[in-house]
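wait is this the right file?? whatever heres the structure
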């Protein structure tokens, strides 16, 4: 029984590229990340991650946000996809970051769970731009009126690539 448990712990969840492929799509040679819509909660001097990850969105909300993000970031080599309730980010190149699963950051300061590595500063710039775009998005205006949590960020994790 102990060996069975050890073997289960060694099994890695598929990365975003593998999941994209398992859903019947061609990952090409791109670098893929899961891109989960989240609600970050402002604390006194930090942000925490609300536990409902991914934040549930209606299909029309997900489509509207995806279209806006693609319109804004496509020239930067970033393309967002929404497929069967999962969100993905396709990049032309590896961003050189290490990410954390969102469940590791629930209800605590997210600073130590943000992307790390050689590309972390460039990634933080992208993340800030993305958050500003989401802040003024009409979907969030409607969600605020309906007293629903706003989609104020995306949590990226599970990066990977399938090379041929």
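ok assuming it is, sequence goes like this
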């Amino acid at each position: 029984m102990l060996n069975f448990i050890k073997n289960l712990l060694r099994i890695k969840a598929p990365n975003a590229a593998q999941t994209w492929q398992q859903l019947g799509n061609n990952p090409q040679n791109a670098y893929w990340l899961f891109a989960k819509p989240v609600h970050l909660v402002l604390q006194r001097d930090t942000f925490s991650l609300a536990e409902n990850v991914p934040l549930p969105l209606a299909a029309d909300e997900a489509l509207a946000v995806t279209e806006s993000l693609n319109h804004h970031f496509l020239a930067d080599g970033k393309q967002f996809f929404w497929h069967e309730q999962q969100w993905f980010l396709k990049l032309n190149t590896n961003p050189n970051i290490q990410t954390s699963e969102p469940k590791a950051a629930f209800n605590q300061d997210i600073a130590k769970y943000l992307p790390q590595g050689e590309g972390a500063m460039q990634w933080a710039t992208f993340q800030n731009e993305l958050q500003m775009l989401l802040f003024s998005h009409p979907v969030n205006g409607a969600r605020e009126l309906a007293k629903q949590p706003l989609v104020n960020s995306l949590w990226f994790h599970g990066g990977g690539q399938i090379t041929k």
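Residues 120-135 form the longest helix (16 residues). so i think its the right one actually
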